[in-house]
Automatic annotation (TrEMBL):
<feature type="transmembrane region" description="Helical">
    <location>
        <begin position="62"/>
        <end position="80"/>
    </location>
</feature>
<dbReference type="InterPro" id="IPR052165">
    <property type="entry name" value="Membrane_assoc_protease"/>
</dbReference>
<dbReference type="InterPro" id="IPR002810">
    <property type="entry name" value="NfeD-like_C"/>
</dbReference>
<dbReference type="Pfam" id="PF01957">
    <property type="entry name" value="NfeD"/>
</dbReference>
<keyword id="KW-0472">Membrane</keyword>
<keyword id="KW-1133">Transmembrane helix</keyword>
<keyword id="KW-0812">Transmembrane</keyword>
<feature type="transmembrane region" description="Helical">
    <location>
        <begin position="12"/>
        <end position="42"/>
    </location>
</feature>
<feature type="domain" description="NfeD-like C-terminal">
    <location>
        <begin position="97"/>
        <end position="150"/>
    </location>
</feature>
<dbReference type="GO" id="GO:0005886">
    <property type="term" value="C:plasma membrane"/>
</dbReference>
<dbReference type="InterPro" id="IPR012340">
    <property type="entry name" value="NA-bd_OB-fold"/>
</dbReference>
<protein>
    <submittedName>
        <fullName>NfeD family protein</fullName>
    </submittedName>
</protein>
Amino acid sequence: MIQRIVTELGPWAWWVLGIVLLILEVLMPGVFLVWIGIAAIITGALSLLLWETAFWTWHAQWLVFAVLSLIAAIVGRRIVHARGQNSDQPHLNQRGQSLVGRTATLEQPIMEGRGRIRLDDTMWNVQGPDLPVGARVRVTTSNGANLTVEAI
């Protein structure tokens, strides 16, 4: 069956596969099919050049496609991860972490190690040394919805 499809479409079978994979990546984004689609298109380009040669059987084409897919996935992963580390907002989805270093005034006193502060439009539970209402504190760490503060 595979041999028949490759024979009928010729070298364009790889181009069709590559375009289908790229379309699937657009419909279901995951930044994975794009690299396999690129490997299929490169295999298609090689097929256009090598179609009439004796060694360019469908077995060789699938082997080249598999190797190119692996290489493209590894290179693509490195590109994506290298690009993702240099964000201008590294704590975008980690709101508590973005509050570390900020200062605030206690809305409720810290008694027995627990109190509350207001930062922007949100009340936060805080942990720290016992302090009265109105004391200025600095956020030192974040643990989920709880912030640890120190007096300033």
